[in-house]
Structures are given as structure tokens and as C-alpha cells.
Write a structure and sequence with these properties.
Layout: H1 13-65, E1 152-153, E2 159-163, H2 198-202, E3 205-211, E4 214-220, H3 224-227, E5 232-233, E6 239-242, H4 243-253, H5 262-266, H6 279-285, E7 307-311, E8 328-332, E9 337-340, H7 344-355
């Protein structure tokens, strides 16, 4: 009678290869799921950061604005006692990590993409976007009470554009667009150049004036006195209009995109994604000509549409300039978080019915 051997039989080499192959297949299937979970977790953490920053900005405005809405010069000033002391003020933000997006590999300190990268060392987005916002980066080394931040602060106190105060007449009532006794400076005129031409090109408002056909309204660039709230004196005697002032004007009066002027008049926006009905298409579909029928055009933006803080770190470099990829995470003035293409105006118009505050053209998207 044979006795069974008590010694366990080991895996054969073929069985071991089969097990390893199964594990590799499972790993390859699970890795994209794990990456997606990590991405969503980081994006949720970023959204939480934006919510906390919005709450801090709201408290700042209540404490400092009195009868007007006002925000700090730099976003990271929320973390200082005042905008020059560098002392921590726990009444607004007491943890500087809130200014860092978890997707920002640089941790808002340096460029990990190498010296040869086209992207400047201090950035608010992955490498080489066409809409270059590196000048908006907030870093501790810059001074002015700044801390390191991954985010783009739209309502910054940086200078947006300058104008010549010596050429300003007393404003006519109502404003007369034919009055040329005021001048926005562009980057070929002023001593250091206006940083942008946002106010006199992108912003538009309806001015009442008299024409040969009779009184009426016409689109025109706003006068400096219509935009500026807190003018900043420049070394050459011109007056600087801050981005915060320009953004408040855009909120209240719209711009060339909202009014449908961007296509035929300025062409500043890139072509929209296929099948998307932007304001130009919308006005055409309802028989409105923005140039001849300005009173029928939309103006102000809902607060749920306009971002005060934006995060570009959720974009992939290959799609960073594509209007078809809505990967920019935004915190609106109203406190809601929404994703958008680089031009937030386009995405807000497309999904406005979901964002709230506007019930007209937003239902006519694709």
C-alpha cells in the first residue's frame, strides 16, 4: 500500500506565468480607473480650496467695502494682516496650502518642465498656453504681501489699462461717443505701455447720442471715467485702471462677446467648436443685428457666470488652448464652481441655464 506524500506540490513555471499574466491584465485594467479616481479627488480638493477662498473674499469685501463691493489687490493678501506687512491674518485664510491646487506639480514655486521650456518659470497653468497668464502668478518672492498661489485671480488690483487724465473733459450727460477729448493709452504710447487693450477693445457699452436719423443708441468703447473706481496714479501722470474695475464693468455692462459684436467687428474670440451656437449665431437666429439694434442685445453677466478665481491646472498641455475641452475650473462671484473652456464666456453662454441667472440665449446651445 502506497503512502501519499505530505509534501505540497509547487507551481509549475507555466502556472506561474499564467498567474503573472492575469495580474498584469488586472493591473492594466485598474490603472486607468485608479488614475481617474485620483484626478477626481484632486479636482474635488481644488474645488474645496476655491470654496474657502470665495468665503474669505466675501468676508474681506464685507469688512473693507462698506457700501461697495471690493476685493484685495492680490488673492494671497487674504493671508496677510495687510497688503504690505507680511503678517498672517487668520481671520481670512490661515493655511497657505489652500492657495495651491493639488494638480499643480510645481507647488506654485518653480517650473518642473526644464530650462528649455517655453513656459516662464512662474506660471498659473501647465506649459505654453496661448492665453499666457504667467504675469498674473503670485509668488512670495514678488513682495506686496504675496504668497505662492496656483490660481488666476481675475479681480486683481493689477493695472489693466491706462488713460491720459489731462485729456479728460467733464463727462457729458448723457455720454457722447463723438467726444474725443479723452484717450485710452495703448502699448505704443504710454511710458511703459498699457498692459492690455481690454477696456477700449473688449469692453463695449451703449451710449445715447444724436445722429442725422434721430436720437438713438450706439455701441462704443467706455470712457475711462465710466470704468475707473479707484484710479491708480502712474509715474508718467497717466491714470491706471485696475483689472478689478474692468471686471466689474464687464459684469455690469457685458462685452463684445455677450453683445454679439465679436464676430463682425473685432474677431478677438477663436472660432467656436463645431455645432455651438454663440451669441453671434443666437442674434442672427432671432433676427437681431447687434450693430443696428443695440437696445435688443444682452449686456450684463449673471454673477453665476463670471469667475473671480480660475484654475488651469486641470487642463492637459495638448488641449490647453482648445475651446472644445472645458477643463478650466472656475469659482464664480456667486460662489458656484463650474468648468469652462479657456474663454469662460463661451462655456457660460453654452450652459448658462445650468449655472443660473439667465434664461434667454443659453437654452439655444448645441
Amino acid at each position: 500500500m502506497h503512502r501519499r506524500s505530505s509534501r505540497a506540490r509547487g507551481f509549475t513555471l507555466m502556472e506561474l506565468f499564467v498567474v503573472i499574466g492575469i495580474l498584469l491584465v488586472l493591473a492594466s485594467a485598474l490603472m486607468p480607473i485608479a488614475a481617474s479616481i485620483r484626478y477626481k479627488a484632486k479636482k474635488s480638493q481644488c474645488a474645496s480650496n476655491l470654496q474657502q477662498l470665495h468665503a474669505a473674499l466675501s468676508m474681506y469685501s464685507v469688512d473693507n467695502g462698506r457700501d461697495i463691493e471690493i476685493y484685495p489687490t492680490y488673492l494671497t493678501n487674504l493671508c496677510t494682516m495687510n497688503e504690505g506687512s507680511g503678517q498672517i491674518n487668520p481671520s481670512y485664510i490661515d493655511d497657505e496650502r489652500i492657495f495651491i491646487c493639488p494638480m499643480d506639480d510645481t507647488k506654485a514655486t518653480q517650473n518642473i518642465y526644464g530650462v528649455a521650456s517655453l513656459k516662464p518659470i512662474y506660471s498659473v497653468s501647465p506649459p505654453v498656453p496661448q492665453d499666457d497668464k504667467h504675469d498674473w502668478a503670485e509668488r512670495y518672492s514678488y513682495g506686496y504681501g504675496m504668497r505662492n498661489s496656483s490660481y488666476l485671480y481675475e479681480f486683481s488690483g493689477r493695472i489693466c489699462e491706462t488713460y491720459d487724465s489731462t485729456q479728460l473733459d467733464a463727462p457729458s450727460v448723457p455720454p457722447d461717443p463723438s467726444d474725443t477729448e479723452w484717450a485710452w493709452y495703448d502699448d505704443t504710447i504710454a511710458w511703459s505701455g498699457s498692459p492690455s487693450n481690454f477696456c477700449d477693445t473688449y469692453l463695449q457699452t451703449k451710449h445715447y447720442y444724436s445722429v442725422t436719423q434721430g436720437p438713438g443708441y450706439e455701441w462704443d468703447a467706455p470712457t475711462p471715467t465710466e470704468v475707473v473706481q479707484n484710479g491708480v496714479g502712474m509715474p508718467d501722470g497717466t491714470i491706471g485702471v485696475t483689472w478689478q474695475d474692468a471686471k466689474f464693468f464687464q459684469l455690469m455692462h457685458g462685452d463684445i462677446y455677450r453683445s454679439g459684436l465679436e464676430d463682425s467687428t473685432f474677431g478677438d474670440f477663436p472660432d467656436p467648436p463645431a455645432g455651438f451656437q454663440d451669441p453671434v449665431d443666437y442674434y442672427s437666429s432671432v433676427g437681431i443685428d447687434p450693430l443696428s439694434d443695440p437696445t435688443d442685445c444682452l449686456e450684463s453677466y449673471p454673477r453665476t457666470w463670471m469667475p473671480i478665481i480660475r484654475c488651469f491646472w486641470h487642463q492637459t498641455p495638448m488641449h490647453i488652448d482648445s475651446e472644445s475641452y472645458e477643463q478650466v475650473q472656475n469659482m464664480s462671484l456667486a460662489g458656484n464652481v463650474f468648468d469652462s473652456a479657456p474663454y469662460w464666456e463661451r462655456t457660460a453662454f453654452k450652459y448658462g441655464s445650468h449655472l443660473g441667472g439667465d434664461s434667454d440665449p443659453v437654452t439655444l446651445g448645441p
